[in-house]
Every structure is written in C-alpha cells, then in structure tokens.
Amino acid sequence: MKIPAVTSLLALNDVQIAQASEGQSSNVVSMPIHLLYGGLNKVTTSVMVGSGNEKIGQSIEVVVDYGSSGFWIFGPNATVNYGSQYLGFPGACNTTPQFYYHSDDSKVFNFSGSYAYGGNSKILDADKAVNDTLYFPSSLPGASIPNIEVALVSSGTVRQYVPDGDPCPELSYDYGIMGLATPAGFDSGPNIKTELLNQGRISSSIVSMYFDSAPADSSISYNYTGTVLFGSLPPSSSYTGTPISNATTSEIVKLPYRYLARDSSRPGGVTPEGMCILGISLGGEFARNNYKKKIIRKRLQENSY
C-alpha cells in the first residue's frame, strides 16, 4: 500500500546521480529515525555508540540534521555552561550531560573540532574522537553500522540568560547531532556520509529520509517512525508522485524592499534614521557548496515593520 503524499521526503545533492533503488540495496546503509510528539522536537535517532553504551543499555538521542555536517556526542565528564546574556560567554551556570559515550575496547584519540548552531547561541568543542559501532535499540538485534568516527565533545556554551542571584534553571539541550550535509572546507567533521562513501559501503552521496504514515486511528500525540537511507532514494512504496530532482539552484534572487516615510503606507523619500540588518544564512547544500554565507544589508525606515 502506498503511503500518502504527505509523508516526508527529503534528499541531499542531485538525485539524478543517485540512480539507486530497491535493486541496489547492497550499497545502501539504513538507520531508524523518529519524530517524537512534543514542542520543538526534532528528527532524532536513538543510538548506542560502542559496546560500552550497549552493555549498560544507555542510548543517546541524537538529532539527525540536514543543515550541518559534523557528528558528535558528549564525552565523559563534559560540561555545558550557560547563564550569560552574551554570545560566547559561559555564564555562572553549568551542567554535566547525563547521556554520553562510555569507553569500550575502541581507542579514543586526540581530535580538534568546534561546532556552532543557532547563530552561535550554541557552541561546542571536542578534543577527542573515537571510531566505533552504532547500535540502534529500536532495531536490535538488527543491523548495526560499524567503523564510524564520532567526535566527543568536552565543553559547550549555550546562550540562556540567568539574572545574577537567580537559581540556575534546568537547561534543555541536544545530547548529540549527526550532520548529513556534505562537509565544506571549514567544517570540523567527522561526517558519516563521507566515511561510508570512502569505505565503499555506499556508491552515491545521496541521503534520503522518509516516515511511515500514521495509523488511521492515531492520536495527535502519535510518534512518527521512519528511516534514513545512505546511498539511495526511499523505496517507491513509501511515497506517491515523482520526487523533485532539480531543486538545487545557483540563481541570485533579489530581495524586494522599499523605504517608507514614518506613518506612510507608500514609498517615500525620507532618508532612514535607523538601520535594520537582515541576515540570511543560506544553509544546506547551497551555502556549503559556495563555501560562504551571504549577508544582505539594506537600510530600512526605523520602525517601518
């Protein structure tokens, strides 16, 4: 039975080069994902990194992110600082992540990586990394993904302001992020897609994602489950219609704007007294393939919007 068209379908890179289907499953690596009910929830996967985490049964909820390329989780004794109202400043509060990498027989090695999200409101630094196996509790005893490098974050700073003298509130933050985007020259890595390609375990750089449809009688709080496929498009039974194959573009789109005189609803000739900076960070493949972010700055009438 085909899943309705509302099923999520995402793909990286030009799908025309993939030419991957159910008949080429030997060059495809899959991974379970889910979208849990709740405010501000993200697409995640529950993963046990290494036999150490598998033995104690501790899985880590890792965000599956198309907008970044690095793959990290917290290492032992990591610290996350917060409390300052300024970007990059640690503040007076800190917490120790509850979910982190537990060492096993795999050798931890020195590594230098830095990761920033949300306009630098979240900055994390890794000084170690490990090459280990990914186990997925939702599919055990199913297939694992061996020989994957993961950075181990030792410290982080989250911008969450806490006034002086106030008690430190509980901090909500991600315990790991798996970036699926193609790495650019300035990225720290490691990148799971690049590793699978270099190891010959997938034959295409495409990464696709799809979700199973919810049961007809499911409630609004239903938790969606799905799959990420490295090296393949989703099976044709998981969607209807034709996937978009020419979404990538390099055209320059002009942003329409106009100056408005105060209390005016039409273009005016008054020189603006203030400045509004519109910052557009072009994420995903477009920004990474151009190796830079483009910032558009236009002078606008103060309080004109």
From TrEMBL:
<protein>
    <recommendedName>
        <fullName>Peptidase A1 domain-containing protein</fullName>
    </recommendedName>
</protein>
<keyword id="KW-0732">Signal</keyword>
<dbReference type="Pfam" id="PF00026">
    <property type="entry name" value="Asp"/>
</dbReference>
<feature type="domain" description="Peptidase A1">
    <location>
        <begin position="43"/>
        <end position="305"/>
    </location>
</feature>
<dbReference type="InterPro" id="IPR021109">
    <property type="entry name" value="Peptidase_aspartic_dom_sf"/>
</dbReference>
<dbReference type="InterPro" id="IPR033121">
    <property type="entry name" value="PEPTIDASE_A1"/>
</dbReference>
<feature type="signal peptide">
    <location>
        <begin position="1"/>
        <end position="20"/>
    </location>
</feature>
